[in-house]
Specification:
Distance between the termini: 48 Å
Number of domains: 1
Strand content: 15-25%
Strand order of the largest sheet: 1-2-3
């Protein structure tokens, strides 16, 4: 019984994200990036077929809550994520990538 529950959880938490990820690979031209203003900080969102797909208002890969300090900073990371999606890669961003983009938490 425990094995069946584990299997169901595994399927539940891996199949839908994987299906969404691979569906984006096929329709890469339908992805759109736009900046988002949140109070006194910035973020970005990516839409897929006109629907919200990623909404990021904090610097990814950094522990804690660290907003982007500028629109340009948010868009640099957003363009990297968009590039990864269009090339069939995971949208995850590493600390090394953030450093290469000169994005650092305040």
């Amino acid at each position: 019984m425990k094995m069946i529950k584990r299997f169901h959880r595994l399927v539940l938490f891996t199949v839908p994200p994987a299906a969404l990820f691979f569906s984006c690979r096929e329709k890469a031209d339908t992805l759109r990036l736009a900046p988002v203003r949140t109070g006194n900080s910035w973020g970005y969102h990516i839409q897929h077929n006109g629907r919200p797909f990623i909404y990021q208002v904090e610097i990814p890969a950094v522990a804690g809550h660290h907003p982007f300090s500028s629109k340009e900073e948010a868009m640099r990371v957003g363009r990297l994520v968009l590039h990864k999606l269009r090339h069939g890669q995971s949208p995850a961003v590493s600390l090394r990538e953030l450093d290469s983009l000169n994005v650092r938490p305040r």
